[in-house]
Amino acid sequence: MKFPALLPATLATLVVALVATPALAQDASGLPQAPAAPMAQGQPQAAPAAPAAQPWTINVQLEHGADPDTDLTGTPVILEAARPRGPFEVTAPEPVARWTSVANAEGLAVFNQVPAAVAQQGLRLSAHATYGGVPFSSRAYAAADGVRMNVRVFDRGHDLSGLRVASKRVIVEPWEEYIILSQTWTFTLDAEHAVDVAMLPDPAYERGLPIRLPVKAEGIRADGQGTFEIINNVVFWKGVIKPGEPVTMQIRFSVSARDDVFNYEQEMAWPTDTLQLIAPLQTQYKRTPRLGTLELVAPGFELTTDASSLGLRDDMEFLIANRSDVAPGQAYAFQLRGLPFGRPMGGWIALALGILVSLLVIVFGLREHRRLHDGSKREEIVSALNAERELLLDELAELRRLRQSADEETRWEIDAEVGLLRERLSLILSKLRDLGHAPQS
User: Minimal CA–CA distance to 150: which of 84, 199, 77?
Assistant: First the structure.
């Protein structure tokens, strides 16, 4: 089959198609494109972020406690945030945040950048200012926007008139033949000035405010506001006392107690509003976990067992004594009976030695008297006196050795016995001198 007529036409059509295809492609690229279909969203879009919490504004008002017209413009003020202070803490907690400002002509310091997170963390706010070289503070406030805090400042005084002990609590506990005493002192100042003890001109306060403890006090430790120095049985405190701001400190020490009866006495140098004695009936001894026979004798005190009113643990038992209005220079005393301590053996040993020596003295005395009146030989009398003298010297040496390790009560008994032996020894030496046989040393 032949197609001679179709070959030229077919070739022409192919050529036109090949030439037109690139041109159409170029024209299509210049046309506006249809918008693409939106892509399907597999996940929901995130919600818009919440706006940041606005900072709080805290106002601190400075006021002069004695002269309200005092100009406090430009006084620096510090705002601190710290955790709440515990009921038995003697020092304030360390602040976790701090801001600064300056008082204006009205004595107002404004803090407008305090974050609201302070309240969420349960922190408390306190303001501090220094006036006349003396630091002053406000009470602790719960954090809230717009809260107004007050700080009272005073001029610096130069004496301790108006100083008193608002309260003193003494906790007495037995431990390892010792009595542990924990004393919590709270001082207040009734005056129109503040006092820096370190800057008092009175030489009696050169080392600080002296708190005298019994001479027997051992292992003394002191904690609280200010600084402490311990010399022998005296605790010296240096710090600032301000009207309306109590100063609390704790003094802890031990006293030897090897008997079942313990006596204590201490003089109060300042007027005292409230004095409390507390003796727990539970101990740390496994053999005597409870002091069922303990008695507290405190002249002038009112005895009670109401521990809840003092904030003590309700799962423990206590002996409590309260007293009010102790005058300056007046001493208080108390006695504990039924302690888990036995009477020391040193006293019984000294008593036994004393009885033995007394019997020997009587025997030798009768023998000497009989020989003197019976006309016995002189040499026998001298020999007996020398033997008794040597015996007395040995007894005195033994008592001196026992006295070195004895407690105070036993030492008193030993000293009394030593006095009797020395009297007898002086009589023997006198007789030997009368007989012409005085010892050489």
Answer: 77
